[in-house]
Amino acid sequence: LTGINGKFDSTHLTNMEGMFANDAAFAISNLTSFMNKLDTSNVTNISHLFENCSALTVIPEKLLPAEELAENCYYNMFCDCENLTYAPDLPAKQLCYGCYTSMFSGCQNLSRIKVSFTEWGNGQNYETSWFLPSEINDTLMLFCPSALDTVSRGKNCIPEGLSVNTTYFSE
């Protein structure tokens, strides 16, 4: 998919699961503009949305504006987007079950992720394995609020080897 011409009625859209998944050529040049045209007020599932879109390299910072999350809402969203280098901001202040599970699994070229939450969810698997340890590269940096526990490491918090920066975080 390289673009959508004409009108696209999305007022009754409730499920965007896998909408662009497995599209090796997916590279809409103005993804933000396209997504802003969609009425997503009734959407309850956007998991797997861009899964395995190997042409996807950059996601606009403000693509995912949700500050309240539903269970498993971003599950596998960018899974296996192997050329993705820049992730969207994740502005949610509080996590819920499975919300970031495997979200960036297979994205071995990421250089930046910015989150806004300040708690890891007390081990409730809120962000289980959002990365696999083998996918952490030397340039990947997690930007987060200083109130977030950046000492805890593991699959339900900051993966081993992931660099953290709270100094340049701004809301």
Quick summary:
Helix content is 4%, strand content 5%.
Explain this structure.
- By secondary structure, the protein is low in regular secondary structure.
- Helix content is 4%, strand content 5%.
- The chain has a three-stranded parallel sheet with strand order 1-2-3, with no helix packed on it.
Give the topology, please.
Layout lengths: L30 H7 L74 E3 L26 E3 L19 E3 L6
Query: What string, H for helix and E for strand, traces the elements in order?
Result: HEEE
| Terminal residue distance | 33 Å
Q: Round the Cα radius of gyration to an integer and report it.
A: 16 Å
- Strand arrangement in the largest pleated sheet: 1-2-3
Q: What do the pLDDT scores average to?
A: 79
Helical coverage, percent range = under 10%
Main sheet summary: 3 strands, parallel
Structural class: little secondary structure
Note the overall shape. Answer: globular
Number of helices: 1
Percent of residues in beta strands: 5-15%
Poorly predicted tracts of residues? none
Number of strands: 3
Note the main attributes of this structure.
171 residues; little secondary structure; three-stranded parallel beta sheet; 1 helix; 3 strands; 4% helix
